[in-house]
Specification:
Elements: E1 4-6, E2 28-30, E3 73-78, E4 81-87, H1 97-110, E5 115-119, H2 123-135, E6 138-144, H3 149-157, E7 161-165, H4 169-181, H5 194-210, E8 216-220, H6 225-239, E9 248-254, H7 259-266, H8 292-298, E10 304-309, H9 314-323, H10 330-342, E11 350-354
Parallel strand pairs: 4-11, 5-6, 6-7, 8-9, 8-11, 9-10
Antiparallel strand pairs: 1-2, 3-4
Helix pairs in contact: 1-2, 1-5, 2-3, 5-6, 9-10
Length: 362
């Protein structure tokens, strides 16, 4: 069964609720890889819940669902090649975060939590607000005041209280931290590890869709949870003998805020010129990614690469995707320029994850 441990001291997650290790303050992560068994996949269940055995939830935990998963994989010609676009904007709240949130809120519900807080640039907050409403959990979401109007409105419509915080994304994280210090339960999409197993379902679906492993997968990278979940999913499939090898993973960041790209391309010296600059790709405006260390460690043993896209290339990428019929928010559009940069070296099949619907952007 999938289990979770502190990456700092090695202690397992406590039976009660904790978003960080109560002993040392460390971050919880998957212990020794996801437990995936092809024979345990429940074909009769919808979407991500076919893979419940890999989630590390208690047997009695409820399945809080809005129908997430089973998103379309659409092939199109791009840069002279066939590229397979995974359209995650077709999830219930319009982004890939629903895979993560469904599992995390099920975990919260299993712990009897009735009130919780979250911080988000928009998509994670909207997803949490929706699933919290579904589970009967009172939600409060801290967002940077630059978060797009549609996302803020979406959070409010689900009944969550929106706390708009002036300044960059990091200020919203500080504000929610103060609420947690005052006793609130922190339903963090970045810190709670159960969401990684939810995101791994993307890897499982891609292998089912393609009839085998992709050669390369590109996805936007902020905290790094999506890329890490993909890596854990493909590694679990490889360990189970479902695929021969995991694909190359490419995390795409905005040049205005690209810490993972800077570290992998320039070492620790790269941190000196990392800023939390403004970018239309608000979903990846994260200067200190929670899952960054785990990704960098994985990158020492398997192919995980990072790109940084100049600001002036993001919206043209969004428009190019629209001309193929994909209406995405700017964060998703990072993968277009990324495709152009790696397509000559990428092995087929090439997959690009379109993380959020364009209607979510202002």
């Amino acid at each position: 069964m999938t289990s979770y441990v502190c990456t700092n001291c090695g202690r397992g997650m406590p039976e009660g609720f904790a978003h960080r290790c109560p002993a040392c303050g460390g971050v919880f992560d998957v212990a020794g890889g996801l437990a995936f068994d092809p024979a345990a996949v429940e074909a009769g269940k919808p979407g991500v819940w076919r893979y419940r055995h890999s989630f590390g939830l208690d047997a009695g935990a409820p399945e809080v669902t809005l129908g997430e998963g089973n998103t379309p994989l659409v092939a199109a010609r791009a840069f002279g090649r066939t590229v397979h676009f995974k359209v995650e904007g077709q999830n219930p709240t319009g982004s890939f975060k629903d895979r993560l949130t469904a599992v995390e809120v099920s975990y919260l519900a299993s712990r009897g939590i009735t009130e919780a807080v979250e911080d988000s640039s928009g998509n994670a907050g909207a997803s949490f607000a929706a699933y919290a409403a579904r589970a009967g959990i009172r939600a409060q979401v801290f967002v940077p005041d630059y978060a797009s109007g549609p996302k803020r409105a979406q959070i409010e419509r689900y009944g969550a209280e929106v706390m708009a915080v002036p300044g960059p994304r990091s200020e919203a994280a500080k504000a929610v931290g103060r609420a947690v210090e005052a006793g609130a339960h922190y339903a963090s999409h970045a810190y709670l590890p159960h969401g990684l197993a939810g995101l791994a379902t993307l890897a499982y679906e891609l292998v089912e869709n393609l009839g085998g492993a992709p050669g390369a997968v590109l996805a936007p990278a902020g905290h790094g949870s999506l890329l890490l979940g993909l890596a854990y999913g493909f590694n679990a499939l490889e360990a189970a003998g479902v695929i021969a090898a995991a694909p190359s993973l490419v995390g795409v960041q905005a040049m205005a805020c690209a810490p993972l790209w800077a570290l992998t391309n320039h070492g620790t010296a790269g941190l000196g010129f990392i800023t939390e600059g403004g970018t239309v790709a608000e979903g990846v405006r994260v200067r200190q990614p929670v899952r960054g260390d785990a990704l960098l460690r994985l990158g020492q043993t398997q192919p995980i690469h990072f790109l940084a896209i100049p600001e002036e290339d993001i919206l043209p990428g969004r428009d190019e995707l629209a001309r193929l019929g994909f209406y995405v928010e700017p964060t998703s559009a990072l993968v277009w320029k990324g495709l152009g940069l790696v397509i000559d070296q990428a092995h087929d099949p090439v997959v690009a994850i379109l993380t959020g619907h364009g209607l979510k952007a202002a």
